[in-house]
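Predict structure. Chain length: 359.
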Amino acid sequence: MIWSAWRQIRLQTLVLAIATALLVLVFALTGPHLNHVYQTVVLTCQSHNDCLTVFSNFQSQYHLARLVGVLILAAPALLGVFWGAPLVAREIESGTFRLAWTQSVSRSRWLLTKVFMVGLISVVITGILSLAYTWWSSAYSQVFKGQFMPLRYMTHDLVPIGYAAFAFALGVTLGALIRRSVPAMAATLVGYVGGLTAFTVWVRPYLQSPLHRSSPLQIFSSSRSSGPGTNPNDWVISQQTLNSSGKAIGQDGGIGSTGNTVFAPVGHGSPGTFRFVGVGTCPNKFPLHQNGLSRNAAPSPTFVHAINACVRGFHLRDLLTYQPASHYWTFQWYEMSIFIVLALALIGFTWWWVRHRLT
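Prediction complete.
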């Protein structure tokens, strides 16, 4: 049975192994140069006061890192669609599963041999690609922070292994249920993308209890990325503006229903009074144009100081809900484990279905 299962997939395995080896070879040949540029140019940019230019050039020169990341992200889905879905469905369509069962091969052995052989190859190939890409893009990741960013998080380290196991098992299960290869392939793609999206939005942020940080609101500041004590690799889940009673009145460092800071000048001319929509009116006067808030110029320091003094008078606070960078590996292990358990559950259901329902 093992030899028969291997004969069915040996050509596809050979093609996939060659493609994987070529990509890993490209990583091995270009990785040292990428790291050399990072060590000699990027890390020394502060001494030349041109880090912005260096970062921009580095990103444009290695923009393929993102394209390769998309390929790594798509690998589990492709394996589930083209290997998982037809594995059982093709046998049912052609009727060859009955021939195997008449050759003293039990249903359990017929299914589990095929599933674990092809599934193991899928997981190993995805793991190799993920680890090779993680090593190759490490310098790029050091420059552009944000290890919880979806494309980076979902293509690095451990989680692609869990995705590969889940996508393959989902394809096998849908193939056994639908019994036709092409519809099962389409359903696998939709199910995998939908399941991964739902997990990303509703489950991943709460795999571990998020932390909270409260600080006085600063209107003209990038509090999302540079708030007190934040790390560029932290994952900001939400940022709310609270009034003195603790009620949320805005988001992302802003005020108003849209989360944008809404200034409503009271009266005309200069100076004038500003009212924060939903909060109140500032007691002091502000220069509306000269040295103040004009259409073609940034707010002056005097204006910014006056606005922030008014905000402090309203006792507005910025509440940051986030996952710290130190939770990264916990998330990786948790998420990989969850998807592997889901894969095993799907295979268990398929085994029961084949034994008791497939005729």
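Summary: Confidence is low (pLDDT under 50) at residues 222-229.
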